[in-house]
Amino acid sequence: MGEQTRIQTQTQPLPHHETSSQPQPTAPVTETPTDLSQNPSYSSKIPVRPHKLRKLSSIAAADSTDGGDSSNTLVVSKPSTSTTATATKNRRRNSSQLARVPPSAIAPLSAAGEIDAALRHLRAADPLLADLIDSLPRPAFDSHQPPFLALTKNILYQQLAYKAGTSIYTRFVEFCGGEDNVSPDTVLSLSTSQLRQIGVSGRKAIYLYDLANKYKSGILSDNLIVGMDDKSLFTMLSMVKGIGSWSVHMFMIFSLHRPDVLPVSDVGVRKGVQTLYGLEELPRPPQMEHLCEKWRPYRSVGSWYLWRLVEGKGNSQSGAGTALEGIMPLQQHIGQQEKMQQQHQLQLLEPINGTTSFGACIWGR
Fold first, then answer.
1. Nearest to residue 312, comparing CAs of 342, 336, 296?
2. pTM across the whole model
3. Is the distance from CB of 104 to CB of 296 less than 8 angstroms?
4. Can you give the residue ranges of every domain in the chain?
């Protein structure tokens, strides 16, 4: 009995906070088992190893060699095969959808190679427009005016015949000391009476002052206008008194050379869509958007060809191929376009600031 007690005492484990440098005797195989259920204090003497958390599965092999208990290891689970397959399928579907989206044109039409890229795209996208492109000369978007000067010029030419608008604009520039001196400060320095002396109406004077004040307050600037995307630019310029959607579209095409503008309120473009697609009536803006959607991202160039189509209808090809400075409609058709504008103005969703071909003419000068 004493021997049995001695053996049990020697084989009892040390508490986990105690250490011993002496080797421990090995218990014989015939050791009498101890009933743990009847000895509640025995569990407090069982050594407890601190849990080791495995942060990354890639270090599992290193952890397993240090004697750690694998049952206490936190294992990072890998995604199931079905989840991986679903993610791959979604990526493939998204890639195929993006592949069907037309290329985005970022550079202005005056940049090198942009006109060639536009013509390639339009020819491939619309066979009817391809025939029109082949029958007319290449467009050119090479006018370079500061945004403030171009917007001021548009306001002065509104609702006037080309000759009258040119006369008023010339006198206005002389008052300012030349086109290089047309600035917000110069415009605000001119009184209403001075503007009336050169033929500027009181309403147009208000428009000019509003544009200049928005520049002075920092709401607008030439740099901001050039850097804005099309949607933001349309919103900001439409806030200026006297500048509506038609004026913004003309400015974006002929001054900033934006490649993807469809002037849905322009009578000339509406008439061109009607002629190109053989419609019985002038198309409304939603119908124009639908028909010209395939021209993206070069709807500005498509619109340019529609203007030329309307101008050249009933004239010789050589007459249709002669344009003012390469991008403006023919001056001899201005009167005809003004008449067309008056006939169809009531059909537009909002009033148009100026006449169709006449407006395009002043923007490029």
1. 336
2. 0.62
3. no
4. 147-364
